[in-house]
Amino acid sequence: ERAQLFPGKPLPMEHPLPLSFVLPNPTDLPGLALGFLDGNFEDLQDLLDRASNLTSHLKHDSSHLNDRLLHLRTDLTKHAVSWITTSLAAKVSLDNLRLNLESLLSLSESGTDALGKQTNRELHQLVEELCRIQNTRRYFMTALKLESLVGDLEDSVFHPMSNRKGSMLQDLACKQKRSNHAIKTMNEIEEVLGDVTRNHSQWRRLVDSVDSRVDKSLSILRPQIIADHRAFLSSLGWPPKLATSKVDHGEVASIPNPLLLMQEDQKESYSQSFLLLCGLQKLNTMKEKRKKKLNMPKENDSVGFWATDELVIPVASRMEHHFMKWSDQPEFIFELVYKVTRDFADGIDDILQPLIDRARLVSCSAKEAWVSAMVQMLSCFLEKKVFPGLVETFKKDKHMKPEVVSSWFRLVDQMVTFDKRMQSFVDSDTFLGSSVAFSQGMSVMGLFCKKPEWLKTWGKIELKDAYRKLKEDIKNEKAWLVVSERTRLGDESNSRSAKFVLSTREDYKAPFVADSFLSRTWRLIDHGLSLPSILPRIQFVRATATKFLWYVFKILLLEFSKTDLSDDSSFEDTLLQACGPINAARFLESKLREWCDDVVLVEMWASETSVQVDRKPEVSSCHGCFFGEELKGLVELETNWLMEIITACLHQFDNLCSDHFHDNVVSWEEEEAVTDCSDITVSRGVAQALDSLRRHLCVLQLHMNPKDFLDLWRNLAQGLDHYFSCKFFSGVVLRKRFKVDAEALLTVFQPYCVRPAAFFPRVREILRL
Predict the structure, then answer these.
(1) Is the pLDDT of residue 209 over 80?
(2) 751: confidence class by pLDDT, cuts 50, 70, 90
(3) Which parts of 397-533 fold into alpha helices (H)?
């Protein structure tokens, strides 16, 4: 106004206005601009000093973004031109279709075959062209969508963040927001790629190109998320100290859990970080499933739950120091792992399970994931630090020094005990017992499933140790001694059926060594059942327990071969000695059948039958149970031994009667001359033979198990029935004397059945006639 009033006169110099008049009012600025200024300038002086630098940076970023926008516009223009070209081609094709249809209508009256064929050919070509256009359109639309999503992902991942100077939680929240957006974008990309994989498998190059760009972004994003998560856990004081000085009532107090001490803002930050890890793992699972459908090379599966793995990794690094000090005392290692797992399980379940539910992870338990991660941590330590040394020592020392065997057994026993404690701990909070579902990931014995060569080494050690201990048991003077209540009481019972209700070694009158056979066999089977996978179980039991059983059968065979049944002078002592291996074999047979009825061995037999593990097809799992082949061999041994005893008894009976039958050969006419008034008694030779037979049966009844004795006397009766009938029809015995001898024979078998004549059908028929 002054210049207009006084034209031509210079204006006087005015003082510069203060900054409070130049800068806008902060209340008028939007929140984003105000936050930007607060994040880059601390005070007014900082504004004056750094404004120019910030301006240059902003200009540079703006120029870069303008260049990128120009590039995108250029690409969009190219795609639009391409699409217009395609649309024009489609329009021309549709016009041609219209003209062809008009021509078809105009010539439809002629109806010639040539015209019909030409029309069909042109229609077929038209359909193919339309399908090609439609597929091209879908391809371009999918490619544009993927390009947009991948570009958004790369902007989110590669764009540098401004240097904020806020608190750690504020910085973490900003990073989490950016990472969350990137994960959502990758999920959308994965959904599109999944649809392409299912419906357009020929677009392999498009999928490979997108996968390559997404993997680059993921290779940057995943380490950042994990690093931020670990830094946040470290700020919370995780991992805690593993030692505590508090002792309550003689017991060490539980270790405090830092996760339970988080404040509300810390809980929210941890929740977001946890959900990011869950999102990454879920995305990784989706990618692996899609690659499996495409038959692409599959990456190694991640074992466990990533969020709990991140809790275990720092705990493992702190535990390893103690593990190395306790390499010769494995019980301390297992006890420490169990204590830490138990003390933190409830707190981790309270914190993580709601987050798992929030992430909508199906069939995932925080407590089981924590236990599994701790078990896998211990397995990795044993695999890398403990077992290699033991295996190397075993290879160098083939003679199995006691200290080597002791180290193996001590470690394996601790592993088995640890698995049982962990299984009990997991089952304590579940409504349905997870004994069947106690998988390889939650069992430290699963280490042998991953290392078949270590499983074979362990089997060799167990088998050789069982051989050595069994040899010591056999050397005992009382090994084959039979002492049972049934023997002392003469097998008396109020009920006849009670004789055959057998369950214990005393019931079967088996020697003491039979208990050793069974206990050492079951120990090998029980160690095999401690393995979490069924196929390694079968391999271990076949390599140890099955071989050990055949070794036991050999020992029984050698023991029975010591008996000389041809020696008539000490025949009763020989029978007593023969009862030992027979009773032991029958006792083993009953226990093997009882074990085979167990549901675990039934499952193993079914699995072995289907896959034929380490056995020939014609031999594997025959006779309907797991130890079918072994039972068949054992029954054959028992049968052969009983037949040898029966043969020896019949041979001795024949020796005692042969002179009598030879000296009393008469004709039918001479027999008629025998006076009826004379009393006919049992001949001396037959009486002597029957008395010897009665004594032998008493010895066998007293010292042989009831089941085998039942088979023995019935088969012996069958043999004597055949023997007496042959002597009668050969004419070497008087008919009237035969009746007396036969009645005496039936009297010998009277204590063992109600109607002895039922077991002598030939003699009974002769007497009837």
Answers:
(1) yes
(2) very high
(3) 402-427, 446-450, 452-474, 485-488, 512-529
